Amino acid sequence: MTTIAARPTTTRLGYVDNLRVLLTVLVLAHHAAATYGALPFWYWTEPSDSPSGIALMLLMLVNQFYFMGFFFLLSGLFVPGSVDRKGPGAFARDRLVRLGVPLAAFWLVARPILSLREWPARSAQGDSFLHFWFTVGDVGPLWFVEVLLVMSLAYAALRALRARSAAGSGVVAGLRTAAEVQPRPVSFRAIAGLVALLTVVTFLWRLAVPTGTYWELGGLPSPAYLPQYAILFVVGLLAARRGWLSGLTVRQGRVALVVALVSVGLALGGLALATAPGAGVLAQLGAALAENIFAMSAVIALLVLFRERLAGQPTWARFAAQNSFAVYVIHPLVLVGVAVLQAPLVAPAGVKFLILLALSVPLCWLFAYLLRRIPGVSRVL
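^ that's the sequence the OP posted. Answer follows.
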């Protein structure tokens, strides 16, 4: 059978930026679904066990299988080149500013504002407002920024040690920039190997950290997925050096799309079995396998689709990409604000979800743009 090779493209960053915009919208959809679905865990919730509420819960579960891991993969793509240009020390300082400042700002300002519903109960218990302000809640969605900062600093430290070792031995390490990388073919066997690695590590990890675990230290809502996040971040680092994303073929993208559509139901069924009382190790292993087959199929299908069909960046797409990180940081405030305003509306969960999403997406980008117009803010957002 003939394999259709990926055509050369000069808009690699364009399609990657477009993917990041899509994933940011999916984050908004995820938390809008958490507002009205049958799996409430958001700052403002109106849970529903109606059919549309169940559908919103399924949307959240499907998102969770792959979308944050995909974020880590795309983030890893930009790290090696940045370290090349700045050096490990300057890169680490830059990450501490660009990731650490938004994280600290969210913790100091947005976190207590989003948790104000808890203040009457805390006040009735004799808590002071100052104590409440600094102790309520966690970093919320900014856990992603927190984990990404740790991973980025770890990579910078590794590069610094490597450079020191090379200098001590008199060897000058020559690293190619992403622009100099020639695409390397990615075989189906390599993809299967990645799925196998993700499955085994995920299975072993979840024997100690089962699905649904919450880590209060660090405010991690999904530590059961940490192996996927770490491995896909490393895949992003390696892909930047080896041209893997450009090496994916159109045929692989089509196969991945079919596999994703077929396996999504298996992944949901596997999750239900693995989290049922008394679930054995075989059920957990099967769930990890089905989940990672779907996750990698969805990632590959979207990568190839955007590279081949959605790589262009008209003005609106560039605007969306430039403001996507700021949107990620501020979106909880916008979503909760809109949800509170439409709370009196009596409508099915699915309808309120659609209204919330339709209003919040443009508002998030508008407020992000205005925020970044403040002098100095664009330095970190």
